[in-house]
From TrEMBL:
Highest rank taxon of the organism: Bacteria
Catalysed reactions, as listed in the record: tRNA(His) + L-histidine + ATP = L-histidyl-tRNA(His) + AMP + diphosphate + H(+)
GO biological process, one term: histidyl-tRNA aminoacylation
Name used for this protein in its record: Histidine--tRNA ligase
Domain Aminoacyl-transfer RNA synthetases class-II family profile span(s) in chain numbering: 8-319
Organism: Ligilactobacillus pobuzihii
Subcellular location field: Cytoplasm
Enzyme Commission number(s) of this protein: 6.1.1.21
GO molecular function ontology, one term from the record: ATP binding
Enzyme class: ligase
GO cellular component: cytoplasm
Length: 432
């Protein structure tokens, strides 16, 4: 029987894993500058954590969640996104307490799961990097999160980006707009897709997010939420735009953008790339916004929040298409060539000693002849080789060779164990 990975998943092989690690390292470096600290939450949560926060009419809840009942008859869900689990942990661990610095800034990295049709950059097990900031309602924090997203993408070499911006306003704004949208859509109800018909009266904003081509034609003429904002919501959005202007971060207003999760309010945004990875069409790489009220939904006190999520697979596709290589192939410091059975144990000890001194070291495990071992050293781009056989053992010496210059020197075995850096300096001085 031939076993294959489940549909919608991918094997990340060693060469690819280096690029993944490089992206994650860049993210950690950028997040540290903004003072965001890492949190790690379970890959599965109670079903209610996501059904309550993501919205009962969202595609995630109605179509895409991997949920099941465990042996204790608990309704469990593999996490489809990162924010709700972070909020649950924030509430459960009382990170809103007076002793915790405000705003509380955190980031996460890890796999998420959605049952959807696999396609390029969209898998059933995918990975997100995201940030969340709790405890401040300031538009300046919205802009910090946006600037952080841009800084992260710039740090990995992406510069042809577009920031799309909108607001969903406060509760009063949304209620006013909700009714206006229903009034607009009801005459078109017969023309709407099945999903949009179901959402029309439950959550009409979801219709704006429909991928159905005919739905998109209809909503193109829909009223704009920007015409239904309260004075407070208008002030918040105006300040966001002013702060972005002050930071010289260009943006475009997209009044039909609503995001795919129901917990958003006020500022929402998407950062897009026109990379050839997706045919030069503007494709979302990173998205997020403000979600005041989400903490209360999961049993916490009134706490504003804002954040974003970035799809790692999609980002890596873009980096590959743009020939951006973040991971660097590290040369091997030392390859130990062992000749004969008696040198076998000694070569193992030498390799271990070199690693403990901070050098990368390798040896043969396939019983290759010396010629084959030197070929392996060349293939691994070894800077130096150390050769030891019966003669060297008898003399308690090893042959040290600089593979770049072919300079060689006999060096005391004890010095290799105590200070390889000093031993190789003999060759370095010879070359100079």
């Amino acid at each position: 029987m031939r076993y294959q990975r489940p549909k919608g998943t991918a094997d990340i092989l060693p060469k690819e894993a280096k690029q993944w690690s490089a992206v994650e390292s860049r993210a950690r470096e950028v997040f540290e500058k903004y003072r965001y600290q890492e949190m790690r939450t379970p890959m599965f949560e109670s079903f209610d954590v996501f059904s309550r926060t993501s919205g009962e009419t969202s595609d995630i809840v109605t179509k895409e969640m991997y949920d099941f009942y465990d042996k204790g008859d608990r309704h469990i869900t593999l996490r489809p996104e990162g924010t709700a689990g972070i909020v649950r942990a924030y509430v459960e661990n009382k990170l809103y307490g007076p002793e915790v610095q405000k705003p509380f800034k955190t980031f996460y990295m890890g796999p998420m799961f959605r049952y959807e049709r696999p396609q390029s950059g969209r898998l059933r097990q995918f990975h997100q990097i995201g940030v969340e900031a709790f405890g401040a309602d300031s538009p300046a924090l919205d802009v910090e999160v946006i600037s952080l997203a841009m800084a992260l993408l710039n740090s990995v070499g992406l510069h042809s980006l577009k920031l799309s911006l909108n607001t969903l306003g406060d509760n009063e704004s949304r209620q006013n707009y909700r009714q206006a949208l229903i009034d607009f859509l009801e005459p078109h109800e017969a023309e709407l897709s099945k999903d949009s018909k179901e959402r029309l009266h439950k959550n009409p904003l979801r219709v704006l997010d429909s991928k159905d081509a005919n739905d998109q034609k209809i909503v193109a003429e829909a009223p704009s939420i920007l015409d239904y904002l309260t004075s407070d919501a208008t002030k918040h959005f105006t300040l966001v735009k002013q702060y972005l202007d002050a930071l010289e971060i260009p943006y475009e207003i997209d009044s039909n953008m609503v995001r795919g999760l129901d917990y958003y309010n006020h500022t929402i945004f998407e950062v897009m790339s026109d990379s050839k990875a997706f045919g030069g069409k503007w494709t979302t790489v990173c998205a997020g916004g403000r979600y005041n009220g989400l903490v209360e939904q999961l049993g916490g006190p009134e706490t504003p929040g804002v954040g974003f999520g970035l799809g790692v697979e999609r980002l890596l596709l873009i980096l590959d298409a743009e020939d951006i290589e973040l991971s660097e192939q590290q040369d091997l410091d030392v390859y130990v060539v062992g000749i004969g059975e008696k040198a076998d144990i000694e070569s193992l000890k030498i390799v271990q000693a070199l690693r403990q001194q901070g050098f990368s070291a390798e040896r043969d495990y396939l019983n290759k002849k010396p010629k084959g071992q030197f070929k392996a050293a060349n293939k691994a781009n070894a800077n130096y080789t150390l050769t030891i056989g019966q003669e060297e053992l008898d003399q308690q010496k090893v042959n040290l060779k600089d593979m770049r210059t072919s300079q060689q020197e006999s060096v005391g075995l004890s010095q290799i164990y105590t200070d390889f850096a000093q031993a190789k300096s003999v060759l370095d001085e010879k070359e100079n």
